[in-house]
Design a protein that fits this description.
This protein is of the alpha+beta class. The protein is built from 14 helices and seven strands. The chain starts with a helix and ends with a helix. The protein binds iron/sulfur cluster.
Length: 351
């Protein structure tokens, strides 16, 4: 590992690059100044950005902050509205925790986010990464912010060849050694920007990298293959049936999933259980002339692949239930259910 003087010089080069090249993002303030970003916006952006790209988040962030400009406004919003606005962004436990966290900040802290990591971590949905990011970026605390981008940059800079996830503690320690006491928020964002725009996963653009002269991975000719990863077990396949009940006026039957668990609290087509072995059980939500629609929905979650058979029926106006106009229902659904609705409607229109 390099000496302290080298690390300080590396950190300065990184900040100088950030001053010139920082991405302009709606939750940021320009680098180097005294202006601090709004903790609410930093927190919201960091929660949205977990497991999601900046390109996907930008529109959601703008829509959320237009509709709920403050933590008080978000805390007062009905949870179902927040879930519907989050639809399509994935990892829906984040949306439920978002509302719970906003309410805790308003109820217990007078609408002010705490400014250090331990206190931030007591709030719903704020783990080690988000607490460090908010503490550093919103409050200028010297917190060590390590996400996947930062792990990659650090593994390459220090030529760490141990595979992830076992290498995590070492990468964190190296990231900590690189974090300066001054401008920790800008340093964190500079690392994120370098990982997202220069030191990219497949083809690091070492030729334009401000740290090219500091990089052990580049010097050893192994940068592009870092970080190494232990082989993951193959994801299992689950299967299920989704039911599309289409009423004469174009409304479709939806169900709101239970609050906890996968897609918890989200609106979707009625489904039976998703099973890994055997045939999925038939659980039609109402009596009707159900028939196979043909197309199959395929979707991959973090821990498994899913295949949903689509079954549909045209319904008279008689039965009750949560029928909603198809476009409105689709807008509130997570991606997998949107796919199912779109494919099912197309199949029924063509029948
Ligand atoms: Fe990444 Fe290349 Fe820069 Fe090293 S020199 S940090 S591998 S972009």
């Amino acid at each position: 590992m390099r000496g302290g003087a080298d690390l300080a010089a590396t950190g300065e080069r990184l900040l100088a690059w950030y001053d010139r090249s920082a991405r302009r993002l709606p939750w940021r303030v320009p680098p180097g100044g005294d202006e601090r970003p709004d903790p609410y916006r930093v927190w919201l952006s960091e929660v949205m950005l977990q497991q999601t790209t900046v390109a996907a988040v930008r529109g959601y962030f703008e829509a959320f902050t237009e509709r709920w400009a403050t933590v008080e406004a978000l805390a007062a919003a009905p949870e179902a509205e927040v879930m519907a606005a989050w639809a399509g962004l994935g990892y829906y436990a984040r949306a439920r925790n978002l509302v719970a966290c906003a309410r805790a900040v308003v109820r217990e802290r007078g609408g002010r986010f705490p400014d250090d990591e331990p206190a931030l971590r007591t709030l719903p949905g704020i783990g080690a990464y988000t607490a460090a990011a908010v503490a550093a970026i919103a409050f200028g605390r010297p917190a060590v912010v390590v996400d996947g981008n930062v792990e990659r940059v650090v593994a390459r800079l220090f030529a760490v060849t141990d595979p992830l996830p076992a290498a995590k503690p070492r990468l964190h320690a190296l990231a900590a050694a690189l974090t300066p006491a001054g401008r920790p928020g800008d340093h964190a964002q500079a690392m994120m920007d370098l990982g997202a725009t220069v030191c990219t996963p497949k083809r690091p653009a070492c030729g334009i990298c401000p740290l090219v002269g500091d990089c052990d991975g580049r010097a050893a000719g192994i940068a592009a293959e870092l970080p190494r990863r232990a082989e993951k077990p193959a994801k299992p396949l689950r299967q299920g049936i989704a039911y599309l009940a289409l009423r004469g006026d174009g409304a479709v039957l939806v169900e709101t999933r239970p609050p906890s668990g996968l897609l918890g609290g989200m609106v979707g087509l009625p489904c039976g259980d998703w099973v890994e072995r055997g045939e999925p059980p038939a659980r039609p939500p109402l009596a009707a002339a159900w028939r196979e629609l043909g197309p199959e929905v395929r979707h991959t979650f973090t821990h498994f692949h899913l295949r949903l058979r689509l079954v549909g029926a045209r319904i008279d106006f008689g039965p009750g239930g949560d029928f909603r106009p198809a476009p409105e229902a689709g807008a509130a659904m997570p991606t997998v259910m949107r796919k199912a609705l779109r494919l099912g409607l197309a199949a029924m229109a063509g029948a």
